[in-house]
Amino acid sequence: MSGATSNIPASSTPPAFEPPCVSVFGAGVISGMRIDLPPIPDAERTPLVVALLAIIDLQQQRIQALEETVLQLRDEIAILKGEKPRPTIAPSTLEKPAKPPAESGQKRPGSAKLSKKTATLKPLVVTIPFPDPPPGSVSKGYEEYDVQELVLQAKLTRYRRERIVTPAGHTLLAPLPADVPPGSHFGPDLIAFILYQYHQCNVTQPLLLEQLRELGIDISAGQINNFLTENHDGFHQEKAAILTAGLAVSSYVGVDDTGARHEGHNGYCTALGNDLFAYFESTDSKSRLNFLTVLRGASDGYAIHEVTLAYWERQKLAQDVAAALSAGPRQFTCAVAWEAWLAEAGVTTERHVRIATEGALLGQLIEQGVSPNLVILSDGAPQFDILVHASCWVHAERPLARAIPYTEAHRTALEQVRQQLWDLYQDLKAYRAHPDPRDKAGLEARFDLLVGQKTDYPTTIGAALKEMRAHKADLLRVLERPEAPLHNNGTESIIRGYVKTRKISGSTRSEAGRRCRDTFASLKKTCRKLGVSFWEYLRDRLGNLGKFPRLAALIRQRAAAGHDAGIAEAVPA
Length: 573
What we know:
This protein is α/β, with parallel strands linked by helices. The chain contains 19 helices and nine strands. The strands form three sheets. The protein has a five-stranded mixed β-sheet, with helices on both faces. A two-stranded antiparallel ribbon has the order 1-2. Strands 6-7 form a two-stranded antiparallel sheet. Helix 13 packs antiparallel against helix 14. Mean pLDDT is 86; it is low at 1-32 and 564-573.
């Protein structure tokens, strides 16, 4: 290059260290920085060396997070420019092991779950004689051949109602049949079809309108919206009864939350349940106070119970505040009465009001029949840490699974810790299937050994183990309560359908719409868990057929029959 001079002599040696790999952003590809550090003997691991290794570990995690953010921003910029973002490349299917051949006479797994014939359909028998048989032919009976068909067509019934005038001069009109909804010109099956298509099949309102009109139904967009959001008090009451019954008969429930926008603002939906029921409730915020309010259900009460006092003590509420609140009534009918008592007792500090209210809501739950020993299984979020809390092992291990090693030694250390963790998990799973008190001490000791080991990577391995050590009681809850699963995959499976609906329909625009979305999501999932057809359930309730008992009664029947109120251990697909 003309005009340029070099300050490095030609005979100089190259530098002792060169980064073997750098990040390349120009082509949209990032190759993670890799540093091959030589082994460091224990004698040379001075405090300074250990501190420098920790700094390197922290910097690598920060670089990884920044590189991921840059890629996300590049994709967003490409979309805004009308270009295509990075393609999602699925793993190769060529490396998957071949399925073992089925043994002779053995069906494939899962084939016995579905029947070739639908037992619920009553066949219409049509006899077909052989046309023009040859002379002398002898009949050998008939061979059955089933054909299923779906009749989907509009039907208009015009009722000619007789009008009479009584001797007293009153005009009377002949009543409509009992299955016709009062004041509606649409039958119960049509309304059930609209609700089923929207809540079960995620068909949007514009597509529903188009579909019904093509079938010959004279209906407007406003009428469809009314069927989806209005006059559902019976369904709302049944949803509230599901929560009361489910909490009363369950030994534990799983809980999770997800985003739920409403009227253009961010909100949250709390989902809870087990294999007997599911319940959804959308609110504007998520906190422990909100979670307790959701658990309380339709009740507006507050109560000071022994559990309340224990909660106040555990949360370190000032003793004089607890004494002032306890020196008076123990039951409060509504928020106004509770807030009046807080003011009378001189409790005005934000923290004191929050803890006192959380305890009073907890006391109300106990008064409503919820067991103080109810296990709350969650992903470890602090707002769910009430009563007897259990944490999910999958979420506890997730920081280790997401960590990207930057040296071979780091990779080896990660693999060793993860292997130890999952070995312990498998043994805890075996303990849950066949609890033996003699195994508890050994499993607890192995947990202490796992989370107590020292590591050269404090911001990845060390931080994850420290977090597990802080939640030891929650992660080892299975040793005392074997009925509680080791993960909350079942709860995430409950909430998956809700998330799918949110992605398709977006946010709700009215309080009635948000309430109906939660109600029918709760009813649909509960029907599925109880083995009840959601379609037949809707037809039964809207047509007043009386075929199915109340879902809350079914939940209590299952629990009384000895059904294990829990979430299946198998990880859902």
